[in-house]
Every structure is written in C-alpha cells, then in structure tokens.
UniProtKB/TrEMBL annotation:
This is Uncharacterized protein. It comes from Pseudonocardia yunnanensis.
Amino acid sequence: MIDSSELLRHAMIRTEQHVANNTGFVAGVVQNISVTENVRRLIEHHDLSPEYVRAMGRLFVESQDTHRAKEILDRHNVVILEGGPSVGLHHAAVYLISTIAGARRIREVDREPGDPVSISALLGERETAWLLDLRRDTDIPTAVGRRIKSECDGLKLADSFLVVIGARGEWISGADDLMQGIRRPDPIGIIRKRLTENDNPLGIDPAVYLDDARVQSRLLSATPTEAVQWFEAIVQVHSAELDAESSVSLDSEAEIITQRRDMLIEMRSSWRDNLSKWHRQPQIDSRHRNFLLAAAVLEGQPVGNVFEAALDVATKLGEPDPEAAGQQGPGIIELTDIIDADLDGADRVQFRKPDYAAAAIDYFWLDRQHLRKDFVKWLATLPLNREEPREIASRAAHYILRSAVRQRSIKDVREVVLSWSTMSDLHDAAADLILAATLEGDLARAMTDQTLNWARSGEKEVQLVLAKVCGGQYARVRPTAALLRLANLAESTHEVVVRAVIESIANLWASEQLRGRILSTVQQWCEPGSRALRRKAGASAFLSLAGYTREDGRSNLFAEAMSSAVHRGLAELGWGTVLDVAAPGFALESSARRVLSLWLNDALLAEIQRDIISDVLVAAVRGENQMMHGAAMRATHLTRLLYEHPPSDQGHGGAGALAELKASIHFRAVDSLSRYALRALLPTAPTPGVESGVVT
C-alpha cells in the first residue's frame, strides 16, 4: 500500500478560504489530523512564501475573469477583485501575484478588520507585491476606492503592485476601472489541473473518477475548497487497500475502478450510510460506540490508550458503570475488528477506510447533539495523564477547533485554552489552538478580541501561553497585533510573564524582517511617558536586544548604532531607561552589567567605537531631550554599573584600556552636568586602573 500521507505532503498544495459554508478544514490523511497541521496551513495562507505563491499559481485554473484582472493589474499596478464568499478570491489573488515579474517581496498587508486602510504606507517598500484582504471588514469607508486609485502612480514609481480582495460595496466607488468580478471556477477543472500538474506519482487517470456520473453530479455546485477536498479524497482512495471480501470481484480493471469509485462516493458522503448501518446492528451497544469514538479521536495511538479512553468517555457521557467485570464483553482485538480497524506492528489503531475517523466523529456530532458539551469537555481532559500528551492534545484541539468553527463560537476554545494553560506540558497545544482560532476566518474577530483581553487582564497561566503565541508564528503574519499584545503583557504584575515577553521579543529579533517593528515597539515601551511596569519591561527588552550577538560575538545593536540614527536613538533611550530603574539590587542588574561589559569590550576595537559608546551613555544620563531630569541618579547608577563587580574579561586592549574607557565615560557624564550645579550630588570616579568599588 502506498503511503498516502507522504503523497499528500509532497504532491499537494491546499487552498483554505474564509467562506461562510466552509468549516475551514479539508479532508486529509487521518494520521496527520492535528491542530499543528491546521496552523501550518493557515500560516502558509497568510505568509505568502515564494514557494507557496509559485505552487498556487501553477495549480490555478484561469478564466476570462482572471485574464481581465491581469490586464488591469499590468496597466495600473493595482486590481480590486470582488466576488461572493465561495468563489476563490484568495487563490485568484495569489495567482495574479505569481504572474508579476520583478517583485522581490510578496507581503500581505498587516492589518485587522476595522483598521484604517493606508495605501501610502506601502510605498516605502520597492518591488513588492502586496495583498490587501478586506473580506472581514464590515464597514469599509466609502473613500477607500478613490484612495487606492490615487496611489497607482506611486506604486508604479516604486515598481510595486497591489491586489485587493473584498465584497462589492460603495467603497469601490471612484475605482470602478480597477475592479474585476470573479466568478466561481469550474470544480472539475480544478481537480483535473491538480491531477495533471501535481507530479502525480500514482499516475491517476482523471477520467477514472471524473467520468463517473455521480461525481459529476456532486461537483456541479462545488466551491473551490470543496473541489480541493474531492481531489484529496481521490488521492487517498486511489492509494487505499481495496476490500478483498467485497461482493465486487477484483479480477478486472473495470471491477477495481468500480470499487474505487464507490469508495470515493462513500468517503465524500462522510461514510454516512456505512456508519448508519453499523450503528443499527443489533449487537452494537454503547461499549462498541464508545470504542469507535475513542479510536476516531486517537487513531494512530496504542490500542491500550484507546481502550482506556473509551471507558473514560463513557463516564464523561453519563454512563454509570462502563467497565465489564472479568472477561465479560469483547476484548481489545475483537473491539478493533468490530469497528473495522486494524492494529499495526506497534499495536496502534488504524481504520481500514480512508478518512473514517473524522467521519465517525461527524456522525456522533450529528447523532448525539445533546452530548456535544460533554464530548468537548472530554476532549479537553483527554491528554491528561496519558502517554504522548502533546500529540493527543494537538489532535483533540483539532476537533475542538472544528466544533468551534461549526458553531461560530469561541466559547469551547476559550475554556480549553484556560484549562490547558494550567499544565506546562500542554502549553504548546494551547498556543497552537489560540493561533489557529485567531487566524480561522469565522472565529478570527472574536478570538483576536479575546487575546487582547487576556493580554490586559488574563490569569498568569494564560498570559504565559499568549506570550509564546505572540513570540512565534503569529508575529510572522500579524506583527502589529502580536507586538500590541506583547506590550500589554509587558505590564503584567507577574515577573514570570514579563520574562516570557522578553524571551519572545528576543526570539522575534532573530527575524530581520521584524527588527524595524521591534525597535519601534521597544522604543515606545522605554519612553519616559510609559507606565512604570511597561517601562521596566522596556528596559529588560532593550537589554535582551542589546545583548544579542552576531556570529563574530559582537553586539548586533551596538554595531548598528555605529551607522544608524534609529539604532543610535534606541541605544540612548534604552540605556537611559535601564539607568532609571537601576537602583541597587534591581532585578536587571546582572543583565545590565553583562551587556554593558559586552558593549565596552566591542568599543575597545576602534577609537571611533569608543566615542560612540561614550556619546550613547552620556546621552542616556542626560535623559529625555537632554533636559537632565533625574540625571544625577542615572549618573550614580552608571558609575555603579561601571565599577562594582568588574567582569573578569578585561577587553581587547587589556585592563588598562578598559579602565581608561570607563574613566572617560564617567568623566564626560559628570562634566556634562556641571553647569546645572549638580556636581556635589554625583559620585567620584575611582582612580583610573583601580576598580575596587564606588567612591562617594
């Protein structure tokens, strides 16, 4: 049997769309069902990597609508695509971007629904293809269309392009010549394109499936997302083992095709008839049904875990005594066979039919609607005290998210995240669940608001998880929202949360694309007008960035401050903030001394660098606008950091050069304050070369 999971992983590019009737998931190989996979797909959808754009362009089915849209884009460097919720606007937009020659960068405009639409802000980046998605905006100002049109010349001068997608409305007024409606593409064409353009290692003949009248009938009104689901189902069915005990003989190619076609129809019907017949068998009781449900959620797990989970779910669903004493009732092997599954060499449960696990859960969800709430509660507790809790949690989170999308409510997501955040082993799964819900179309707005509430006033545990989310993939696709939440988390009264925020900032600093935003964010935190808790977090974040080293061991921020006014400004403000909070014994003291030692050591490499660090630290002592407010205190704190507990590393020029540099910095800091008659309040520098402590 061919490994369909590998086939799907390497041979397919999926489309996800924010459509009203779409659950947000496409049928996949059951063994790979997890919220982590959901996150990967959603990130891919927003990140617009060159590989993703090329693949989506190659698989797109062109039409007269997209031909006209391409002409508009070529003529004006802008096109506005409008259409209904199920026509594939995202894929059409990405296809158009894939046709642009000369675009060095591809970016989605970073904004949340309701944020102002600023096209002029995009002109600063040359040779960039932008995607602006307005589909989730409910009230777009009427001037947006005219504003977009007014920037066409600016985009041309920047050799940049803009593709806008949204619903038709008054906002397009004034830019009608830039607008192109997109109609739903031919679903059979989508499937055929993917089977012929997708390296098809199975050599699937599209006619084997697409010539079936039942398939054609089902595809008549299919959306692009549903067409992709059919394609994925075809790949899985074509690689699945056929039922040797079927009434259909497998002696001829025609008979094999018949069984595969039947399997495809059943699979795309969620195996509903098969499951209905199974449940109606007189010998099937709640023990069998619970084992099927547990196996569906835990497919790929050891069968012993499935058996225990079946007992657990029975209790959670209200059965008083699910355990049969002794050897009463069927055992594990019999139960596995009854649910039409097998055990692999490691005694892990695998269903015989493709996508059967998801179908079994869908059947329960429809058939036992009064038990939905208890089922979700069971999913939330399922990873506890189990082997491989993270994998189980990720799988459970997938179904919790699926339930939330169907109900268009984040209530269950919120409760599960709060529960899992109290257990460190489940923080990764909780973070993935937050991220997936925040990016999933029908949940995005409510979940975005929820994360902001948590950042401002959530419990310590959920704030730790949120800091992980905002310091990871979320910042790649929604940097503004991620940094805003980190800013709020920075004001937490819990020191462990603040440390997590600083760690997230340091992680994000590794991305060159985000450094400009991070510099701006940390600078805002360090401003004298910021609230005390945020300013303290700003000092810590600054030290984290200032201590980030390049491959040669030198401080990246110090090196940038040599030539960049922006970095120089942050260095002055950051050190000033550190000195403002640097009372004896303050929490950041060891970090401040370590980073200052690193910068001093770097400065000894060249005379100009000594001048730079001296200028930066003197400006830090002088304070905001060089107004000297609090300067005496900052000078005292600088002296202590320079001379107390000197580092064992004496720098590139030896102890003498380092002592001379310190004395020079101290002298300049003190001298700069003399005209303010503050010299009497300031510490006296030790004799150059002698670093025994602070002399006052």
